[in-house]
Amino acid sequence: MRADPISLGGGWQRRERTLSILVVGIFALVLLRLFTLQVLQGSKYRELSEENRIRVEVLTAPRGEIRDRKGRLLADCVPSFTVTLDPFDKVYTRDPARLDSTLQALAPILGVDAASLRDKIRKERKVSFLPIRLRRNVEKRSVAFVSEHLDRLPGVQVESEPLRRYPLGLMASHLLGYVGEISDKELLDPVYSNYLSGDLIGRMGIERGYEKLLRGVDGKRFVEVNALGRKGEFLGEKHPILPTRGTDLTLTIDLDVQRAAEEAFEPGARGAVVALDPRNGDVLALASKPNYDPNEFSMGITQERWSELSSGGNYPLFNRAIQAAYPPGSTIKPFTALAGLENGVMTPGTFFAQSCTGEFRFGTRLFGCWKHEGHGSLSMHNAIVRSCDVYFYQLGIRIGLERLSAFMSKLTLSDKTGIDLPQERRGLYPDPAWYDKRFGAGRWSRGIILNLAIGQGEVILTPVKLAQIAAFIANGGTLWKPHLIRSVGSTAAAASGDSIGQYVALDARSLAAVRSAMASVVSDPQGTGGQARLDSISVAGKTGTAQNPHGKDHALFICFAPVDAPRIAVAVLVENAGHGSTAAAPIARKVLQSFFHPAPPESAAVLAKR
């Protein structure tokens, strides 16, 4: 039986139509997919493609320069070479063992241990996909070797980046601080969200306190990468984003005064010097001994060297000017005298019933005077000039703890000065509430006032606080907040509110009497501060010797000059040096000499060699 031609033709046409619809449908799906990939999601996949083809490299911004008040350079940045390694290079993803062999080859060239490099890679690859800095400030010889053998060192590159430099070395190290790599813990803190592993951050001093200004803004460079992971400069539409250098800072520091303060100490001595302008709180010098070279940290410091600097011995990283608190000793006596005058319990001509025989009996205890043979009968003026302890024992009893501590609280002795440096320590001048808390209500002796009146007992102050209160007497009653910034970029810092003063109302006659006595401390042949005397400038001061239960007494001296119109106030502390008259006053004299009679200007080259 034959098939009907018409029916056969109809079936074929249906199959052809179905096939055509199927083909059109497939092409429609392909076109739809292409439209989705290239149009709807085109930017996404284009970006992924670019990421595979183009590597983003960070261009580190140079930190801002730091200069003294006369424009002399204290810190800047210079070009240096850094060797980096990309642990995500295709060679290492395919053969992880190659990474270890590369580090073994690099270690002796870079002068580091291969194990430390492996540890660095292990830590940093967890927090960043960028190349890891293996060693900063690499010597030119090592740079040349690495550059010649890049074909055998996959993922290794030699990059140029700014190196923080302190041309004066040890000079002003505690003031300036140093920079170091940001820690893993800090990277987890949202405050440091714009930092990457390996970035440098200010660690102490100005570098830390003004990190946001000094750091600048990093740039980016876009590098084309081939199928083997090798890179070459990409000059297409992605142009480099240049880094923005950090803001320059001009400090209030006078380098002449700073140098004099640091060089005045004997080798191996421990102590601090702070010099202020009593008219506005400008810090003219801030020195702590022993000091350290901040360049060591910029170049990369070993764990052994860090342990040497940070533990045991003299603690050179410890800023004694703001972080250490000491009994002020007799330097507190002018302020005890002010408290007596202001509370009306004495006058400048007051003589006490008991003259100084070298000791004073209070209850069953004997309190000695530093001069064992005694000073005899003295007025307030001569008691300050000759630093008689017995006179101030009796004055302390007459004032009483409540009134004495209330007056000292006006001078903010238990507060920080507010200097714009991190890690400042507060002092302590205890009041009745403090003793009640420590010993129980009323369970402390009235005899504590004798020690407090001469700057012993529980009272402790930092050198920067001593300088602040010396400036307070010098300027007639204003507690200036010490500050270090003179200008930010081209803008004067005074407009930012850094110069903050707190006025304390005092009777002018009280201040005049104390200032006169402090002037005689230096000028009177019987005064204890004669070694701070200058031939051409009148100096007012007060020596101090603070008892130290752990060793030899500490030596202190505070002063200001010229007496009639003070332009500088200084506090000096020398640990375990004995009397302030012989150990601290001569240092103050050298500081004053450098301020009033600075040495002739020197070239930058000469300064850099020091």
UniProtKB/TrEMBL annotation:
List where the protein spans the membrane: 21-40
Instruction: Give the E.C. number(s).
Output: 3.4.16.4
Query: What domain of life does the UniProt record list for this protein's source?
Result: Bacteria
Q: Which UniProt keywords apply?
A: Carboxypeptidase, Cell inner membrane, Cell membrane, Cell shape, Cell wall biogenesis/degradation, Hydrolase, Membrane, Peptidoglycan synthesis, Protease, Transmembrane, Transmembrane helix
Mode of membrane association: Single-pass membrane protein
GO process annotations (BP) = cell wall organization; peptidoglycan biosynthetic process; proteolysis; regulation of cell shape
Q: Name one GO cellular component term.
A: plasma membrane
Give GO MF terms, alphabetically.
Answer: penicillin binding; peptidoglycan L,D-transpeptidase activity; serine-type D-Ala-D-Ala carboxypeptidase activity
Penicillin-binding protein dimerisation domain span: 60-230
Give the subcellular location.
Cell membrane; Membrane
Query: What NCBIfam families does its record include?
Result: pbp2_mrdA
What protein is this chain from? Penicillin-binding protein 2
Source taxonomy lineage? Bacteria, Candidatus Eiseniibacteriota
Which gene codes for it? mrdA
